Amino acid sequence: MTRILAGIQAAQLGLLVNAVLVVTKLIAGIVGHSYALVADAIESSTDIFSSLVVLQGLRVASRPPDEMHRYGYGRAEPLATGVVALMLLAAAVSVAILAIREILTPHHAPAPFTLVVVAGVVVIKELLFRTVFRVGKELESTAVKADAWHHRSDAMTSAAAFIGISLALWGGPGWESADDWAALVAAVIIALNGGRFLTAAVHELMDRTPDEAVLDKIDQAARSVDGVLATEKLRVRKLGLDYSIDLHVQADPALSLHDAHILGGRVKSAIREALPSARDVLIHMEPYEPLQD
């Protein structure tokens, strides 16, 4: 529950910061004639909804297993990731359409003060990204990491807006659309991030095998237990923030059923110690059968 709480707190922090930044950027963009800043505010508004989705996803994923959901509610976490990714893609399309419209429509150059607003946003969102992503990495949560990258994409769009506004002000008449081209570049960056996390969510929902490092950690923990002669048929799937593990362990055929059961319990404990996020660990005890040449 403590791990889930850390993810919820990270999402709540993002929610609060984004609410303030959306209002700030929207007002500055409209008053300062910067469409890149307005587009940035639109992208930030999706951050608010993505943080809400992540919050709800983590709350549902934290529910204990019940009669109707024997494996728990962990799938709510990658589902939340998928929703956040789709929101990123939708934001990218929206920003791109509006940016193209502004490129084709002559308008005023952005006001110089918008540069100060954008620079502040870049710093704040990058710090927020690093904070939330660190939590997501510690929890091994794709939803929290996707939410963090939503903040990073916001920092990128703000950086693109800074460049576009700078070019528009520096170039003078005829360079007004540089601000809008920056928004279009930002839309591409947002779309790439959305596609990346949508792919990750689909892989997790399809029970894709975790990274080799996770498998090696589990196998080495099992083999380190005295009495384990071999391991095979390791199957691992991620359920939200936790792992469900199925492993066949070979031991001395002369062991009694009671001793084999105790050995299996020791293997389970060793795996959970090596990988604290291992929730369900199923050990199948088998007689050791050395390979024949």
Provide an overview of this structure.
- The protein has 293 residues and is mainly α.
- It has helices at residues 2-31, 35-61, 76-103, 113-139, 142-171, 178-205, 212-223, 257-274, and strands at residues 230-239, 242-251, 278-287.
- It has a three-stranded mixed β-sheet, covered by helices on one side.
- The longest helix is centred in the first third of the chain and has 30 residues, at 2-31.
- It starts with a helix and ends in a 6-residue tail after the last strand.
- The relative contact order is 0.13.
- The model has no long low-confidence stretch (mean pLDDT 81).
Structural class: mainly alpha
Number of helices: 8
Radius of gyration: 25 Å
Record field, number of beta strands: 3
For the record, what CATH class of the largest domain applies?
Answer: Mainly Alpha
Largest β sheet strand count, sense and barrel closure: 3 strands, mixed
CATH superfamily of the largest domain: Cation efflux protein transmembrane domain
> What is the correct CATH architecture of the largest domain?
Up-down Bundle
Which band does the percent of strand residues land in? Answer: 5-15%
List the helices and strands and how they pair.
Blueprint: H1 2-31, H2 35-61, H3 76-103, H4 113-139, H5 142-171, H6 178-205, H7 212-223, E1 230-239, E2 242-251, H8 257-274, E3 278-287
Brief account:
The protein has 293 residues and is mainly alpha-helical. Helices cover 68% and strands 10% of the residues. The mean pLDDT is 81.
